[in-house]
Structures are given as structure tokens and as C-alpha cells.
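#help-structures
NK: newbie question, is this the right format to request a structure? protein is HAD-IA family hydrolase
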Amino acid sequence: MSIKCVLFDLDGTLLDTSYDFAHALKLTCLEYNQPILNYQDIRSTVSKGGLSMTQLAFPNLVGEELEERRQKFLGHYMQSINHHTQIFSGLDAGIKALADKNIPWGIVTNKPTYLTEELLKNYAFASAPLTIICGDTLSVRKPNREPMDLAAKQCGVKTEECIYIGDHPRDIQAGINAGMKTAAAMYGYLPDEATEKDWPADYFFHTPYEVSQFIKTL
């Protein structure tokens, strides 16, 4: 069955949010007199979520102390959420192609709604996403298939008519669980040692430009 809808993960796939996350984590480390982390280490952790990034900076903490720092980190991130974030270079052409072809597209992320809305309000895409499913939209999140099913429904297509593009194994598994085609964004926030053999995806995009070229073939 042909692909009639394109769904993106957000951080590390559609938008490069790593610099603002790194800045927020730096501020958190400074606040607690903790050593500042290497940017590349932060970048490869972004897609694992806020808790993992906080644990990276405070590896010896658990429980309430770790949660206190996570909340402080998220507070700093909220304040700097759009300082350096931008759509991955080369993806603009793909979004424009979706608009030109009248192909619906959307976002499925585990990012909380309040952060997603604050992040996206400053971006004017060539066509608006028909669906934005966040980590707290439903009672479950990726890799559960329900967020994927809802995204397809809101875009007016069957799940098997979608392709889901993401930069974390959880993204690929979510797409597979929903019966979608899947694509690994190998340009995203992957560990240095990650290779194609680690991903059971249908497609592999090593640059955002490749995503746009693929969309133009739909």
C-alpha cells in the first residue's frame, strides 16, 4: 500500500533542539556546582528524555533529589526553549513538498504537551501538521501503538498508509507496533556506536536532505 501520510518524531528528527537542552543542563549543573557536561554526550541522550539527561548530569542521585534537579532542568529548558532550536537543515524542502502534494503530516512525540506547544508556537511550516500527539495526550506513549493510531486517525488515513520517522529504537518499535512503515533518522540523537543493524526500520536516512528527497517521490 502506498504511503499517504508522513509522521515525524520531534526532537532529533524534525527539530534540532539539542543546543537549548545543553544550555538548560549547563545552567542546572552550575546551579548545583556540578561539572558541565560535554555537548556530544548530551546530544546523544536527548531522545531518551529529560530524566535521562538529568541522570547524565547527576549520576549518583535518585528519588526526590534527582526529581528536584529534573524539574529545575525542565524549568531552565522552558525559559530557553527557542533560543537555538531550528528545523533540521534540508527538511524545509520536504515539508514544502508535503504541502505541494497535499499530503497530510504530523508529529508524534513523547515530549509533554506544555513543552511541545511552547516549542512549536514559533514555527511556521509550509503546511501545518494535522496532528500533534504528545507524551501525555493519552495514558500511554511510544512505543505503545495507541499514539500512532490516533495520529493516523486525525490525519484521515489508515495506520498502514503512514510512515513514521524517528531517531530512537522506541520510535521504530512504535511504528512497527502500529503496522506503519518506519524510517530511522540516522542524523538524529544517536549514540556514536549506533549502526543500521541496530534498527529494524524499512528506510534509513543519514541526512535531513535524504528525508526531503524521499518525500518528493511520494
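mod (FA): yep, format's fine, and the C-alpha cells are attached above. The mean pLDDT is 95.
NK: thank you!
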